[in-house]
Amino acid sequence: MNEQAHRWPHPAWLPEEELWRQCRVEFSRRRGPGGQHRNKVETAVRLVHLPTGLVVEAHRRRSQAENRRQALRQLRLKLALQHRTAIPREQKPSALWQSRLRQGKLVLNPRHADFPLLLAEVLDHLQAWHWDLPAAARHLGTTTSQLVKLLKHEPAALELVNQHRVQQGLPKLK
Description:
By secondary structure, the chain is an alpha+beta fold. It has 8 helices and 5 strands, in the order αβαββααββαααα. The protein folds into 2 domains: 11-82, 2-Layer Sandwich (Double Stranded RNA Binding Domain), CATH 3.30.160; 95-167, no CATH class. The strands form 2 sheets. A 3-stranded antiparallel sheet has the order 1-2-3. Strands 4-5 form a two-stranded antiparallel ribbon. Strand 2 (44-49) and strand 3 (54-58) form a beta hairpin. It is elongated, with a radius of gyration of 18 Å.
């Protein structure tokens, strides 16, 4: 995991064009379902994010364009999980985060394009608060249960938080 002291915004927040510029893009063919089109055309997409070395691959769709979109989403999610951006505790939650709150309740579908961005923001705030969920939740204007619910949508995020909580002498989340 990259824990360098980078400035907010998190790299998962980069505009699509900028994120593409930071990647080496490779195309290939894949076997499996999808008919003849899949075996004759290079529809599989592999991205290497050059600044971090993170690699993602998307090949489940028949179209290269769909696989490109899926690969970019996977990259944003992987960046959210594996790259921390140091932020000061006094940093206010983003306008995007605030727009997703309704009376302290987080309104976000895990399949929405904003999910990796908000997950990165939560993880960076948790790091700033030394993985103390109640403190980070108060700072983010929500509840501990809302943060746990968000983390449970991405099991790797919950596992990551639990690893850090154990290191801090805090109990694991369930």
